[in-house]
Amino acid sequence: MNGSGKRTSDSGWRSIMIDISPFKGFLTSLSRVSRIDYQIWDKKGEMVFSTGNVPLKALPIKELQVLSKGIVDQEDFQYVPYYDNGYLCGAPLKNGQGLTGSLVAFGSDRDRASGNDNEPDTNTARAEEMKNFLGYLVGLVEENLVAQEEIEEMAQELDQSFEELNLYARIATQIKSLRFSGTMLKNLIEKLLENMRADTAFAVLPDRPQYNVQVIKPGISDKFHERDRIIGSLIDRVPADAPSLDENYFIVNDSLNNPQYHDLAEQPYRFLTVKVQHNGEFYGWLGLVSFNMKEIFRQGELKLLTSMSEQLAVVIANTDLYEDLEQFIINMVKSLVFAIEAKDLYTSGHSERVSHYSMLIGSRLELSDKESNDLKWASILHDIGKIGIPERILNKADRLTDDEFEIIKGHSAKGGKILKPVAQLADSLSAIIHHHERYDGGGYPHGLEGEDIPLAARIIAVADTFDAINSTRAYRDARKPEEALAIIEEVAGSQLDPHIVKVFKNIYEEDLSVVGGKGHAE
Amino acid sequence: MDNNKKILVVDDEAHIRRVIEIKLKKRGYQVIMAKNGQEGFDIIQTQQPDIVISDINMPEMDGRTLCEKTNELKKERPFLTIMVTARILPEDRKWVDKMQDTLFLEKPFSPAEIMEHVDQYLGG
Packing angle between helix A402-409 and helix A411-419, nearest 10 degrees? Predict the structure, then answer.
């Protein structure tokens, strides 16, 4: 289509809101064979395209302008004879949004046999012909336009989905953990702010206020009055009857137009918040604030925030369930331990105290989560092997015979045997079995020495010994904590790991209450 | 708008080509499309694009091979290659460091981000 047609204005198609480029070649070829010049005019009476069959200078521009306006005004086909066998005619052109301009034809039919050409009936017949012809042509163009618009729209939606998908992929990786934690929530909020076009992102969880988090872009915080309480105020003012809450979100597009919100900041802002909710259970709000009033919150951003909130709610719900279950198991185990301790008149509460001290030592030694968890179970269950020891031996006030002592010594190994079938406790067993080993190698059951004794077993040994001395026993009265501490310091290096004794002493000296009030027998 | 800048989009998925094409055309760039590395390679040799945007996993010739084969050509006539891949592995990073004027974007990619790189490279 080289050299065909003329573009009369640079980006003319913009003024008629359609892209006419696909028709230029077609109309130009048509104009060559039929000797008619075709033009496209916009609503305002500007010519945006001409096939150029007739030189621009030779076109009756004024008449054509009047005609094109008439077509737009009447929204109908118009025909005007033009002297010397000529004529002007045109039909309205529409796109998806409505009338957008006109398709105009200018013919100067010199080839037609002259004679009765100027008679009215000839013009009437030709008008009818041209009306039908332009009707077909316009139909063709319009059909194509609708398709063009649909493609454009689809491409834009596709583009938008690509952006959303990209955003989602970047943020979703933040919720890979199955358990809720403050760190996880903070990361999520930071990632949201990084990727969304907003100045502040926040999470408010009314039943877990310790996790509430707000991340503000630098230089933004001063824009809010009472910025410490701003997020709370934003949420407090969400009207309970807002219809959008049926879809779990609330939006303020411009704080200036909202009396509930306009006084919270010096400058106008927009605010979007979404309920964190799962299975009808409400956990809180996730939200964004922006001071950029040139933009609005997009549908995609709402969708993304909603999806994040749903996932967050699922994580919280799972964590609640998990913690419930964990607490249930802990309580079951404690009941079991109480049942065993009930056999021994003097050891009530001993296992729980040993567990308490052991965990304090463990956290001071910065054990990993896994090590700490194993220590928790081992310490509470360390005496479970006593289940098989007759009460008369446990409660005997006189000196034990050698045989009786051997039976008592069997409890640590027996504890290991009893719990062996419980796969989840596999890594706690060694601490239970070895909690009576001595640092100098003289303990039982295996006579392990020093660091060969598992760390958790060495920790429990210190806690166990301290509590035993600090409690009343069948064969003696309880000693005061200071005395108990002095005694374990004496055996540090022989019976107990000296480093752990030291750690425990530090804990005790920093906070005397760690051993007070724990209900040890006095 | 600079209509002289030519951008080649190589991807075996039509909808991805389409989205990038429309965005590039709106910015006034000339867009050429190829369905695989082989087609892309032929076009690079004959039409000398200013930027190549290519997927990694494709039939016929993959994006890595395309990138390696055209790396030599860049010495005479430099152009930017934007590789789009499902996942960027550490060995990919090492590999891309050896390639001239090549950068990696992870899928799902952001069309706007691609446009930023294009505009930046072409000084638009």
Answer: 30
